[in-house]
Amino acid sequence: MNALFHNRKQVLGNYYLASLINAVKKELTLIIKAKDFANELTSHNVIEKDLNRQNQISQEHVDNNKAVREMLLKRGVKPEALPPVEDVKKLERRLDSDEKKAAKGSK
After folding, report:
1. Rounded to whole angstroms, how far apart are CA atoms 20 and 26?
2. What is the pLDDT of residues 70-95, one digit of tens each?
3. Could you give the 3-state DSSP secondary structure of residue 5?
4. Could you count the other beta carbons within 10 Å of the beta carbon of residue 86?
5. H or E segment at 45?
6. End-to-end CA distance of the chain
7. How far apart are CA 11 and CA 95, in angstroms?
């Protein structure tokens, strides 16, 4: 493998890695924040409502998750409709395939 091709691989690898990271951030940040918000509501309400039994805390958690989900749906966000993140191994195979095609094209 020559130096030019190796440098190209590093650039493409960094590009794909950056693309993957951006995709993950876009698709998951909202869901992670929503789940975190529901958990924080539960933690707050456990103290405020003096919940101390497992079933009370569990029900509070379920209720908070439902409320956050309803709010997301009202705002037009459907968590199950978000596109899936591309698998890292699949991404690596695609990168290898693109490199092989590029190498054949440059001959």
Report:
1. 10
2. 999 999 988 777 666 556 677 777 77
3. helix
4. 14
5. helix 3-48
6. 13
7. 11
Tell me the Ramachandran region of residue 87: left when phi exceeds 0, alpha when psi lies from -120 to 50, beta otherwise.
beta
Whether 19 contacts 86, CB under 8 Å? no
User: Contact 85/23 with Cβ under 8 angstroms?
Assistant: yes
Residue type, 59: Q
Nearest to 79 by CA among 38, 32, 12: 32
Report the alpha-carbon distance of residue 30 to residue 44 in Å, rounded: 21
Tokens of 93: 């195979």
At 29-47, the pLDDT tens digits run 788 889 999 999 999 999 9
Q: 14-35 in b/e burial notation, b at 16+ Cβ within 10 A?
A: eebeeebeeeeeeeeeeeeebb
The amino acid at residue 83 is P
